[in-house]
Design a protein that fits this description.
Order of helices and strands: HEEEEEEEEEEEEH
Helix content: 10-25%
Mean pLDDT: 81
Distance between the termini: 51 Å
Largest sheet: 6 strands, mixed
Oligomer: single chain
Shape: globular
Strand content: 25-35%
Structural class: alpha+beta
CATH topology of the largest domain: Rieske Iron-sulfur Protein
Radius of gyration: 20 Å
Low-confidence stretches: 8-28
Number of helices: 2
Number of domains: 2
CATH class of the largest domain: Mainly Beta
Number of strands: 12
Length: about 160
């Protein structure tokens, strides 16, 4: 076995600490949840949306909803309700990000970021299509009225 001496041991220890710190930073929290807004339009700042999903809780007349926004690999910002089109009635049909995918906490189905907000029907996040939001260079606005219409899919929803 080779003897690296005290300087060599210190160097190896420093490299291991740096590698561990890098790994921790890379695996940091992916599920960013913003503060709850109540009974008003949801305004999502484009600058805060990255490839890590951001979850926006909204309280509309006592019903808790959640919108997710994420930057897809093609650079577009995708939005959807944080509930599964099939599993929403279970109360556990919400998503958490694991690596580069969203995972339904009820059925376990996995969705790439490029799939968010693209399809209606089936076991997918409930999309928020362009007709249901206003997009500018700085922000995406989802009206209180549209959020109010979505309350029914969150009647049994509970994020955990």
């Amino acid at each position: 076995m080779k003897n690296y001496g005290d300087n060599g041991k210190a160097f190896i220890a420093a490299v291991m600490i740096a590698a561990g710190s890098f790994a921790f930073a890379q695996s940091g929290p992916l599920n960013v949840v913003k503060p709850v807004i109540a009974d008003r339009d949801l305004v999502i700042q484009i600058a805060e949306v990255t490839e890590n999903a951001v979850f926006y809780p909204v309280d509309i007349e006592g019903t808790r909803l959640e919108v997710l926004a994420v930057k897809a690999p093609d650079g577009t910002i995708r939005t959807a309700f944080n509930t599964c089109q099939v599993c929403y009635s279970s109360g556990r049909g919400f998503y958490k990000q694991q690596g580069t995918v969203l995972v339904c906490q009820n059925c376990g189905n996995r969705f790439r970021m490029s799939q968010v907000g693209m399809r209606s029907g089936g076991c997918n996040p409930v999309p928020i299509f362009p007709a249901n939001k206003t997009v500018t260079a700085a922000a995406i606005t989802i009206s209180k009225e549209f959020l109010n219409d979505a309350k029914k899919i969150f009647a049994r929803w509970r994020r955990g």
